């Protein structure tokens, strides 16, 4: 069994859904040595999230942002937590809905994605800053 872990700092991105698969793969060259295993990608933040979805058509990412902006609106007078502005509490709610990690099977040194799948950074803040990820891989 091989186990390794790397950190990745993603540069600040605008609010929205961003493909980060290539950046994740870049920091884990050891992946090519795993015949069968798993990879967990974890984000160390409470106002951004991760998910796996469509990696080809950019309109999917635009529609994700549109949907979540409607589902969890800003400036709701019922929010008590607004220390960092009107996007603060909605960002926490969106992150809770999508989650802080993704698991990806590894097969023959590559992610075993289905067709058109990739890892999204879901940036829920207008100015979220850099985002830190912990990437853990294990397998044979």
From TrEMBL:
<protein>
    <recommendedName>
        <fullName>YjbQ family protein</fullName>
    </recommendedName>
</protein>
<dbReference type="InterPro" id="IPR035917">
    <property type="entry name" value="YjbQ-like_sf"/>
</dbReference>
<dbReference type="Pfam" id="PF01894">
    <property type="entry name" value="YjbQ"/>
</dbReference>
<dbReference type="InterPro" id="IPR001602">
    <property type="entry name" value="UPF0047_YjbQ-like"/>
</dbReference>
<comment type="similarity">
    <text>Belongs to the UPF0047 family.</text>
</comment>
């Amino acid at each position: 069994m091989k186990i390794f872990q790397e950190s990745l700092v993603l540069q600040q991105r605008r609010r929205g859904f961003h493909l980060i698969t290539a950046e994740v793969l870049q920091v884990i060259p050891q992946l090519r040595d795993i015949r069968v295993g798993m990879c967990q990608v974890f984000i160390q933040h409470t106002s951004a999230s991760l998910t796996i979805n469509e990696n080809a058509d950019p309109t999917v990412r635009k529609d994700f942002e549109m949907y979540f902006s409607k589902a969890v609106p800003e400036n709701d007078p019922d929010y008590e937590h607004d220390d960092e502005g009107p996007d603060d509490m909605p960002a926490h709610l969106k992150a809770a809905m999508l989650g802080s990690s993704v698991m990806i099977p590894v097969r023959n040194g590559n992610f075993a994605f289905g067709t058109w799948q990739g890892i999204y950074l879901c940036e829920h803040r207008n100015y979220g800053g850099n985002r830190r990820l912990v990437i853990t891989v294990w397998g044979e």
